[in-house]
Amino acid sequence: HNSGEHYKEFASHHQLIREVFFDLGLELDLKVNNLPYKSLGTLFKGREEFLESIRTTLSRGDYRGHKRVAAITSSASAATVHGLGGIGKTRTAIEFAHRYADDYTALLFVRADSPEGLNANLAALCGPLVLDLAEKEARELEVQVAAALQWLQAHPGWFLILDNVDTEAAAVAVAALLGKLSGAGQVLITSRIGHWSGAVESLALDVLAVEDAVDFLLERTVNRRRKQADDAEQARILAVTLGQLALALEQAGAMIAVNRYTFAQYLQEWRSRHERVLTWFNVRLMQYPTSVAVTWQTSFDQLTEPSRRLLHLLAWFAPDPIPESLLDVPIAGMGTSEPGASHDLHDALTNLEAYSLVTRADDAPTFAVHRLVQDVTRCSVESDGDHHALITALNWVNDAFVGYPQDVRTWPVLEPLAPHAQTCAQFADDAGVSDPTSRLFSQLGMLYQSQAGYAEAEPLMRRALSIDEASYGKEHPDVAIDLNNLAALLQATNRLSEAEPLMRRALSIDEASYGKEHPNVAIRLNNLAQLLQATNRISEAEPYSRRVVEIFVQFARTTGYPNPYLEVAVNNYGSLLEEMGHTQREVVAILRDIAPEVFG
User: Fold this and answer.
1) What local confidence, expressed as pLDDT, does residue 178 receive?
2) For a surface tag, which of 229, 235, 364, 598 has the fewest beta carbons within 10 Å of its beta carbon?
């Protein structure tokens, strides 16, 4: 037009987004994208209509009172696979994102298997490899979550996958999140829960059709299996045997490819494991078909011994990404402290990947184990009541979980291990294993507290205290440490009346354990003095604060070494004296009298 204005018709809001971004000179290929997997390409079989149904649902602007939200849930014609993990919900959501990537300005993936996980993973969107927001350096989880939500509200055209919303608590948290999002983007939820509020349309995902499962097996193994004239027939038998479950089919395809089996040979391997699996498999408790367990048992039996041992340990971890750096930490009792042993663990990981028992990230040195693989492995190794693998895994992650949780410099090590330390410790606690379970609970609690995750920290700290009281008695020094940590959290959340008796009890334990002039006692006294000062009980706080200075002065004189806490103690006592009304000259005189070392 002569006016210079740009006119063009568009058939859908998807096309409108593309046209607007073209006019703005923005390159869609450089969009934000934290999807964990690449597209399967032609190996993604049989769900074209389902992808289209997702697109249709998400395109309805005003569906049931909420804009553009859908949930993939799992159902099947057979009751034994209803709600089953491994049916392909996550993969379908990711394939949809890849398929229609040009329609969106950002492709975002957030695990939401618990309220805590949802918040943590929303906060992670601030990171340099995703949205790269200024708040990525913030210590408070709430600040990062708020920043991520603000970005979503301010930027149109994004696509967000909320993955593994499989519990009622997680579903409630997700529902609350949806209420905070504007209509600027689209949300796709994957879940085993079939019933959602009217604001979310639930789309049931079935197992693959037999023909699609057969096509997958034939293509997945095309260049590796030993071909036979009856491949199509044998592939059909195998597909039906595995119940057309996507994850079980991938496991079978990986094993056939690695071993160059014929389909008939794999079926023979599968059947030979069936009786063995039945000795530990419990249909009622496992909640998925025996065929899945047999499939993975068949793969397990093909692993190298180091790979099998590694998988037995990883079964007790969370299904979250695991840093490959963990493989550099020696495993007690497994000979991994010998030179070159870390290479053995990395080789074991490669072997697990070959059989699709782990998935390695494309863009980061991490890997993950599917929760069903973990479930099957735990049941198979623990069927005789032996906790050896669990205890080994517990000690391994404990050895790796090293660093002062309140020092931000340790977070790059501790944060990726945190979900695994917590999951492993919880399994150990359920099994009655106390050591080092209490230590991990305590360390995790302090990590979450330092990140303002008070709700996550408190139950862990309370459990650490309970374990240590039962293990050592209520007057043990370790119990005093637990009491002090819990009291600090209560004080940080303004529950001072609850914190005070815990601090006094910790002080009493340390005085009895170490004597009244020990530096540990001074630390407890200082914490109590600070609390009393916070509650405006200055006159009560003064003698405690003075004792702190006197103990640290005596320690320095006795040992000949300056105590790093002395200057802090002097500063704290000086501030308290000023608050009591002493002049600065009077404060200096009092401090010089009891701690001349500080003044030179």
Assistant:
1) 86
2) 229
Least confident of 61-70, 285-294, 478-487: 61-70
Q: Please report, for residues 17, 23, 61, 64, 201, the alpha-carbon distance to residue 70 in angstroms, rounded to integers and kept in the order given.
A: 20, 30, 12, 11, 5
Phi, psi for residue 291 in degrees, rounded to 5:
-60, -35
Helix/strand/coil for 596: helix
Q: How far apart are CA 216 and CA 44, in angstroms?
A: 8
CB 423, CB 116: distance < 8 Å:
no
Q: Measuring CA to CA, how many Å separate 429 from each of 151, 379, 422, 435?
A: 40, 17, 10, 9
Q: For the whole model, what pTM was predicted?
A: 0.68
- Which residue has 């990947």 as its token pair? 353
Phi and psi at 296, nearest 5°, equal -75, -30
* Cα(283)–Cα(365) distance, integer angstroms: 36
**What value does the mean pLDDT take over residues 195-211?**
81
Long-range contacts of 21-27 (CB under 8 A, 24+ apart): 21/105, 21/157, 26/105
Instruction: List, in sequence order, the alpha helices (H) in 493-583.
Output: 496-514, 519-534, 538-559, 566-579
CA distance 296 to 277: 10
Residue 4 Cα distances to 1, 7, 24, 74, 119, angstroms: 6, 9, 15, 52, 47
Residue whose C-alpha is closest to residue 398's, from 460, 489, 326: 326
Which H/E stretch holds residue 190? strand 186-191
CA distance 349 to 476: 42
Q: Give the integer Cα–Cα distance in Å for 452 and 461.
A: 14
Q: CB-based contacts of 545: which residues, under 8 Å, 6+ apart?
A: 525, 526, 529, 533, 569, 572, 573, 576
- Please tell me the distance from the alpha carbon of residue 546 to that of residue 535, in angstroms, as a whole number: 18
Q: How many CB atoms lie within 10 A of CB 34?
A: 18
